[in-house]
Amino acid sequence: MKARPFIKWVGGKGGISRKVLEHLPNEIENYYEPFLGGGAIFFNARKRLKNAFLSDVNAQLVQVYKVIQNNIDDLIRILDIHKKSHSKDYYYNIRSMHNLDNPVKMSARFIYLNKTCYNGLYRVNKNNEFNVPMGSYKNPAILDEKNLRACHEVLQNVNIQFGSFEDIEVHKNSVIYCDPPYDETYNQYTVNKFERDIQEKLRDKVLEWSRQGAKVIISNADTDYIRELYKNSVFTIIDIEAPRYISCKTDGRDSTQELLIML
Questions:
Q1: Cβ atoms within 10 Å of 252's Cβ, excluding its own
Q2: Is the pLDDT of residue 108 over 70?
Q3: Is residue 177 part of a domain?
Q4: What is the mean pLDDT of residues 97-118?
Q5: What is the tens place of the pLDDT at every residue in 60-80?
Q6: 77 in the same domain as 50
Q7: Cβ of 239: how many Cβ atoms within 10 Å?
Q8: Contact, 243 vs 15, CB < 8 A?
Q9: CA angle, 54 as apex, 51 and 59 as ends, to 5°?
Q10: Using an 8 Å Cβ cutoff, are 166 and 207 in contact?
Q11: In CA terms, which of 52, 83, 148, 211 is 20 to 30 Å from 113?
Q12: pLDDT for 4-35, tens place per residue?
């Protein structure tokens, strides 16, 4: 079975993965994805990659990837308990468990809440506590054992780290795919928001990576600010249409214009 993202993620790239892959080499020696999220591009490109380096500033998300990589049986066992116990009271009881210290239990909680909360939204309060209400699902896919095991296999020998894009030092002939929180959209995946000053730091880091010999692809919103930020002629900007998955009404999930920026 082909591995696919095991969580729902605001801004997930499943809908545009083919368009991104069109601009990736068929064989990649070192692949970096510093805004990992749901990992759609990584999972779709995996067969092209010799070495993969995945990272994110969401520590809980990174921990989930590591648990799937190393403790899949224990994770599945606890998710099965969550699946059999799911109810409104159970959801809010699990959501209130902010002080768990067992990585497997924390990761099972993360996946369970992701599959049962409103629209798969990841949001935290100022204390970095998950606070999204329960969604209305008749049969949420709390445990997809086949896909989790497929993800476990794909993640073997992959380097998974907690950290910022600013920490990445790349090798020559590397490929980096950046999917930062989009300009003028939801940007609170951690207690610290991804503001425009960080967008500028990313642009500068991308230029640095390019000088080091890396190929870089960035996804972002089609806004005047982003077009101005990447107006330098060294960048190639491509307009793409992307499905919009997060909406309070299903008839609002149409499409939106986005940008692929490359150098």
A1: 9
A2: yes
A3: yes
A4: 96
A5: 999 999 999 999 999 999 999
A6: no
A7: 9
A8: yes
A9: 155
A10: no
A11: 52
A12: 999 988 878 988 999 999 999 999 999 999 99
More confident residue, 124 or 100: 100
CA distance 195 to 202: 11
Write down the residue that tokens 């600013």 correspond to.
166
pTM greater than the 0.85 cutoff: yes
> DSSP string covering 201-221, please?
HHHHHHHHHHHTT-EEEEEEE
CA 201/CA 54 separation, integer angstroms: 19
- Residue 127: its pLDDT value, please? 87
> Which letter does DSSP use for residue 124 in this model?
B
Torsion of the alpha carbons at 104, 105, 111 and 116, rounded to the nearest 10: 170
Question: Within 13 Å of residue 66, how many CA atoms lie on the same side as its CB?
Answer: 17
Same structural domain, 195 and 253: yes
177 Rama sector, left if φ>0, alpha if ψ -120 to 50, beta otherwise = beta
The number of beta carbons lying within 10 Å of the beta carbon of residue 106 is: 18
Distance CA 241, CA 256 (A): 6
